[in-house]
Specification:
Structural class: mainly alpha
Number of domains: 1
Largest sheet: none
Helix content: over 70%
Strand content: under 5%
Distance between the termini: 29 Å
């Protein structure tokens, strides 16, 4: 009874992963963009503006930026890989999948897991590259191995939340153009108010309120604690894990359970 749905989910997961691996431009761009931001934005602000925030060690904005760009990579890779739902729907592949004896939730689970895998692997690859770039100094305050484990956990939790959210949006938006428009409209403010590009501690009170209700803030904070920060971060590791631990299964389950149009 269980083997059939698991095999169907695995087949869809492998299919979507192969499609991404064949698209070298997507793979290259997903890594080159954050690396370019590290080189241009990170070095430019570190050397040109000399940030004095106590949250940025010795004005080294490039190293501070790593956690935010890892979250950005997971964010865009995970959610935009979910747009393959529209490609399958428009090509008729989705209807063929729905004609199988498996429920819609199994199909969506396979596609969502592919999005989680794509976004997570690209974000982890960026962390690996950034950690060996000369001039980037990651703290690893809990040790390298535990720090990497904590960073991977943060990436996975964020990827599951984002893919669940993307499925919720896809269930209500009928066109790929509308999906990208709505996702950009929602994701950019969430990304900028997450502490990815500037420390939350230095924000005015009314912006801190928005940052506190922003789920991406807790993933970025967990990444900072794992790889960069020398201390408890903004919220603290316990709060980060509690918030992400509650939101991840809730949002992902809502996304998988949402009814999606197939035409």
């Amino acid at each position: 009874m269980i083997a059939g749905p698991l095999l169907a989910c695995q087949a869809i997961l492998v299919r979507d992963l192969r499609a991404v691996l064949r698209s070298r431009s997507q793979l290259y761009s997903s890594l080159l963009l954050p690396l370019m931001l590290l080189a241009v934005l990170g070095v430019g602000i570190s050397e040109g503006l000399e940030p004095s925030s106590s949250s940025i060690r010795d004005g080294d904005y490039t190293s501070f930026l790593v956690a935010g760009l890892i979250a950005m990579t997971a964010l865009f890779s995970s959610t935009f890989s979910s747009a393959s739902y529209y490609q399958d729907r428009d090509s008729g592949q989705l209807r063929a999948m729905m004609a199988s004896p498996h429920p819609q939730q199994i199909i969506l689970l396979g596609k969502s897991l592919a999005g989680v895998a794509i976004g997570s692997l690209q974000a982890i690859a960026l962390l690996a590259i950034a950690s060996v770039i000369p001039g980037i100094e990651l703290e690893w305050q809990h040790g390298v191995v535990p720090g990497i484990g904590l960073a991977v956990l943060a990436v996975l939790l964020l990827a599951f939340i984002l893919n669940g959210f993307a499925q919720l949006v896809a269930s209500r938006i009928r066109t790929m153009q509308g999906f990208h428009l709505v996702m950009n409209l929602l994701l950019f403010p969430l990304l900028f108010l997450s502490g990815a590009f500037f420390p939350l501690a230095d924000l005015p009170g009314w912006l801190k309120v928005f940052a506190t209700v922003n789920p991406i803030s807790y993933a970025v904070d967990l990444l900072q604690i794992a790889a960069y920060a020398d201390g408890d971060g903004h919220f603290g590791i316990v709060i980060d894990l509690i918030v992400l631990g509650i939101l991840t299964p809730t949002v992902f389950a809502l996304g998988i359970g949402a009814k999606h149009p197939i035409e």
